[in-house]
Amino acid sequence: MGLFSPGFMGRRREPVPGLPPGQHLVTDFPVLSIGPTPRVTPEEWRFSITSESGLMTTWTWDEFQALPQEDVTVDIHCVTSWSKFGTGWRGVSLDTLLDGVDTQAGFAMARSYGGYTTNVPLDELRGGKAWVAHQFDGSPLAPEHGGPARLLVPALYFWKSAKWLRSIELSTRNDPGFWEQNGYHMHGDPWREERYW
Ligand SMILES: Nc1nc2c(c(=O)[nH]1)N[C@H]1C(S)=C(S)[C@@H](COP(=O)(O)O)O[C@H]1N2
Ligand SMILES: [Mo]
């Protein structure tokens, strides 16, 4: 005690560019699921967006596949502190899906097959920042990682990226989703360490 200055023991590491505070890099792809993996075939899969006025737009798998597809490479950050750089996904931008949805809502609730929910400010789903992804690394998204399709919001902690996505409900109210009801942050920006509230 007192022999070394706080920085001397190397505890303050050189920041890794692109790595948010309190995170460490992994090269594998951990699976984090709160319950069993729902099995949804593309034939029975439906995805819908409901506006705050109750108007619903629904896509079948074929309709969803016929939409413009985007390939994105992004870094992902789990609140349990692992980050993975350069993950490659294929999916449909939320800008495409929200095109034609008439809304003044500020908030979105993502709902999954299996019952998981998570709330995201609608701003975080727009502007080329979010996708409904159905491929990872050039292959159909594995069931344990959220296949047939999952939400991908890489700018927020990964719990916001709902696996087995079934619907997005737009709302003027910011209701908490599953983890948010249990103390996780309503926003979840990894650069501001918005882990819990
Ligand atoms: N439906 C659903 N989506 C979910 C989860 C979940 O348990 N159920 N876990 C979240 C958490 S905490 C993380 S870190 C990521 C993990 O995704 P992965 O298993 O593909 O790594 O999914 C998120 N989406
Ligand atoms: Mo997570």
TrEMBL record:
Domain Oxidoreductase molybdopterin-binding, chain residue ranges per copy: 35-179
Pfam families per the UniProt record, alphabetical: Oxidored_molyb (PF00174)
Name of protein: Sulfite oxidase-like oxidoreductase
Domain of life assignment: Bacteria
Annotated region (Disordered), positions in chain: 1-22
Record-linked InterPro entries: OxRdtase_Mopterin-bd_dom (IPR000572), OxRdtase_Mopterin-bd_sf (IPR036374)
Cross-referenced PANTHER family: OXIDOREDUCTASE MOLYBDOPTERIN-BINDING DOMAIN-CONTAINING PROTEIN, PROTEIN-METHIONINE-SULFOXIDE REDUCTASE
